[in-house]
Every structure is written in C-alpha cells, then in structure tokens.
Write a structure and sequence with these properties.
Order of helices and strands: EEHEHEHEH
Largest sheet: 5 strands, mixed
Shape: globular
Number of domains: 1
Strand content: 25-35%
Radius of gyration: 12 Å
CATH architecture: 2-Layer Sandwich
CATH superfamily: STAS domain
Length: 109
C-alpha cells in the first residue's frame, strides 16, 4: 500500500493505492489519525487506486468519521468499484459522501 498526502487550506487529501488489508490497515489508520490529531477536521481519502478494502480498513474509516464529527467530514474521492462494493455490502455507503474526482471533493469543503 502507498500513501501520499496533500494539504490544502481547509482540507487534507490522502491518496491511497494498493490493498488496505490486515497487514496494511495499521499504516492506513496511523496516517489518517495523525492528520486528525494534528487538528485537520476535513479529510478526503482518494481511493481510485485501492484494490481491496478489508474490515480493518472499514474500521479506520468509521473511527475517523467519529473523530472529526461534528466539526468536520471524511469524504471519499473516486472510490474504486471494489471499495464501493465493500461499503455497500457492509451497509456503510450511507455514512460517506463520495465524489467522482478529487477536485469536486476538495471544492465541496
């Protein structure tokens, strides 16, 4: 799994590529939570290149959402088909606003 972070004025974007599974979920969790603990309440996770999202990755998304509310949001940009399917199967698709591209997600904050 690869992670790249880009900071804007009102939002931080985390670009994720590869698999978010039991062996990489802790790295993903640490990256997301470090950004939130640093005071950023609006986080966009660009998931266009995510090949697999396990329950551990879902747990990170839900924990991050709880950590930023009520003052911020966790938004998903261009989630891959596999990510969308996983969110739907888990019933979590209603919790996360998704955007077709990074630019529209950044513009929404």
């Amino acid at each position: 799994m690869e992670l790249n972070t880009t900071e804007y004025k009102r939002v931080t974007v985390i670009e994720v590529a590869g698999r978010i599974d039991s062996s990489t979920a802790s790295q993903f969790d640490e990256a997301v939570m470090n950004i939130i603990e640093a005071g950023q309440n609006n986080v966009i996770i660009d998931m266009a290149e995510v090949e697999f999202l396990s329950s551990a990755g879902l747990r990170t998304l839900v924990s991050a959402r709880k950590a930023v509310q009520p003052n911020g949001e966790i938004l998903l940009a261009q989630p891959s088909k596999r990510v969308v399917d996983t969110l739907e199967i888990a019933g979590l698709d209603v919790l996360f606003e998704t955007f077709p591209d990074r630019e529209s997600a950044v513009g929404s904050v």
